[in-house]
Automatic annotation (TrEMBL):
This is Insulinase family protein. It comes from Croceibacterium salegens. Residues 236-422, 732-897 form the Peptidase M16 C-terminal domain. PANTHER family: NARDILYSIN, PROTEIN YHJJ. The keyword Repeat does not apply. Residues 278-312 are annotated as: Disordered. SUPFAM superfamilies: LuxS/MPP-like metallohydrolase. Keywords: Hydrolase, Metalloprotease, Protease, Signal, Zinc. Residues 85-197 form the Peptidase M16 N-terminal domain.
Amino acid sequence: MTVLSRLLCALAPLSLIASLPLAAQDVAEQPSVSADALSAPKYLEPDDPWIYRGTDIPVDPEWQFGEMPNGLRYAVRNNGVPPGQVSIRVRIGAGSLYEGKGEAGFAHLLEHLTYRESKYLGFGEAIPKFQRWGAAFGSDTNAETTPTHTVYKLTLPNAQPDTLREAVRLISGMIREPTLSKADLAADVPIVLAERRDRIGPELRIADASRETFFKGLLLADHSVIGTVEDLQGATPKAVRAFHDRWYRPDNTTIAAVGDVDPRVLADLVEQYFGDWQNEGAKTPRPDFGTPQAPAGSDPDNPVGQTTVMVEPGQPRSMTYAYLRPYVQVTDNMELNRRRLIDAVGEAIINRRLEARARNGGKFLYAGVDHQDISHSASATFVSFAPLDADWQGALSDVRSVIADALETPPSQEEIDREVAGLEVAFTNQVEQSTIQAGSQLADDIMQAVDIGESVGTPDLFLTVFRQSQDRFTPQAVFEHTRQLFEANVIRAFYLTPTAGEATDEQLGAALREMPDTDGSVRQDGPAISFADLPPIGVAQAPVATRPIGVYEIQQIDYANGVKALVWNSGNEPGRVTVRVRFGSGWRGFTGDTAVYAHLGEMALVGAGEGMLGQDEIERVTVGRKIGFDFRIDDGTFVFEGLTRQADLADQLYLFAEKLAHPRWDKQPIERALASSKLAYDSYDLNPGAVLNRDLEYLLSNKDARFATPTPKQLDSATAEGMREVWEPLLKQGPVEVDVFGDIDEQAAIDAISKTFGALPARLPIDRETLARSIDFPPGGGAPVVLRHGGDEEQAAAVIAWPSGGGSAGLQESRKVDLLSRIFSNRIVDALREKAGSSYSPQVFSDWPTDIAGGGRIVVLAQMPPGQVDPFFATTESIAADLAQNGPSEEDLRRAAEPMAQLITRIQTGHTFWLNQLEGSTNDPNLVANLRSLLRDYTQTPKEELQMLAQKYLQMDKAFKVAVLPRDRAR
């Protein structure tokens, strides 16, 4: 795992806690909020739910809807997943498309200002307040602005009656009466500009140019959400207030509230705090978003319009062309959903054919077709692909020929049945898991439905509609729907290339005006493959030992060949099963000379096949099944993982075991991975984040060649034969641990493991030299290592890191170090984002590997202007010194520990949480032994102990620094 991927985990608390070993401990039961002393809501409308008006879609009885005299609409629902939680969403029906002249970026800026200061919250008080209630910044407390709406999000993980009432009161003040002062603007405009600065360079230029191409003549063409520097810097309290008052009105507001609460309580709170909100003046009409139009004189049968070739050195080639039609606000009804199912089947058939073409000699790396309705502005079918080289015409011809065949000849019933079988699994699984759908997702679903002007339905309804539509999935029907996907008012195209002179706008337009050939060679009409036809792994072997591990009813199963398994029927997650297989040596299995094959393995090891199954055959044998096959390399182990269900568990285990028993080494997936890596390499120079993605793990590992991003020269020297030579012995290594957690029949799971992993030959031990390989930290205390990027001159990044520890013996300390890092993170955000406005999202995270001794580090990372690099180091060092000298404050502890406590309480109800804590425990008893203290480690560690950890680890003579600056700019 690279440093950047670890950082991304740190940005997503659910992923982060999943990597932390937990405790089988008693957690206080979360009381649900009752309807005691409830003032009866006045405006609930059980007989006229507003979201179902004008549709024949059956009403979901779990939802209750209300509409107040001021026009504000709300939806409330009881949901106890997870227990004690309430999620609130407030949608304002205005985004960037609603901005007038001089207001570019105001919708998004107002999102920031709303959190800054409001009627009941002083300057900068909102985020700390919600953190003290256990709401993590960025996940539980957030907002989003799109072209068409702005949504404010708050999830209260421990919604006690008083805090729930207070939360709704505070939100009402934020939405209705933000302060919008000069001081607020002075604080938030730099933050928004920092966010914009993080995006400038190729990413923003490409986004702007492609949007201007596809949506020429529409407001969307020149209304980016982030806005312009000129309008943001020119924002005044009066101007922002005008935007707020124009669109932040009750008749333009929708609220959803879902959680472990009587829904009448939620309705009552909405009515109490939003019912007296009055509309001032007449409602402003929605702007005319425009309609895509073909240029005068274009061919009505092939109306090619705007085409753009953009040259961005270092960027990999990509092309997208779009069939654009006017946006039509549909009436969401049963027939519309039946027709969309046929559309989905036709689209899936083409995408499968395009993938087959890419695998079998196509001139493109990947390709896909995607139908979307875009921001109430256009209905579009996008075709996107990546040419393998400068022969973009050949790649375009290949892609168009596959689509042309789909538009000329109906698909076979076999192809249709294949995609329908996949939909059957998806819809059935949604029904199975409907009882464990999180309230936060349900609230988000309502916001999305309102945004697109449609209704909501239950998973049972979708499954029923799908099953009742079986006789409509005919070759002729799918053919007709597919042809409709490629009808258009205008066709527009955008080609991105790193090489000047490779193509012109006119050449791209001319290529699209040519009639394509048809290629039916990749039609997927082959016979189905059954797991029953595949040879057994070996002779099934019964377990030699079975014992409880002392955590819930989890069983450890041991086999004579050395394989060990953990099996648990969690009992509360219908339709969800996770299979994880840990084996071998992980990154320890590679040297600098073989590291290129580690990177290729992450991309192509699964695709290279196994036994009788190549990549195409794996797809065919898994039709109609819920089976996954992910692969990753951890510090001390390799990991296969798949999400499945009990009905498909035996087949899931077969695929994993067969990869170890009889790996294949098909060349094409390996060569495709090589091509992809080569195409991407030049992009690592284009901005500070890309440079860190390329080099940071290498630097923080003391320039260990295993963690260097492979260069084009190294990739050129890699071969499919070399891949086999490196990986074949690694796949024979032990120990092997098989973890099966979720909604399972335990005995059936054990029987399936016995027939697959129990039947493997004994695994080879890892040799001492491999086991001895460590991850070292570079010498610290010196000047920053300076890296250079070729992007915008206003972009820079800086990193400061300290070595920590590793290994499961220090598990308890690792949690406390993580808590210390969260305190550090809050302080660095307050300093760099909230006060200085120099960095949009500075991060602090702790990485403490448990499967190897050592290799841990505490990392602080931020992007900023080049002139702020030295202040970043000074601020970071000052925070580290203060934590070591004075320790954290009580406020620090509350803001960091309470969100972690609530997160643990919420997610421990899921089997994935326990799997992530216990994986590896069949060979490491420390993981179980230290489990019980997890919640205590995160929530009850005294500040004096955290101060001692700061003194131990945050020593400046051990700190390693990196600065990423624009090329040719001195520090």
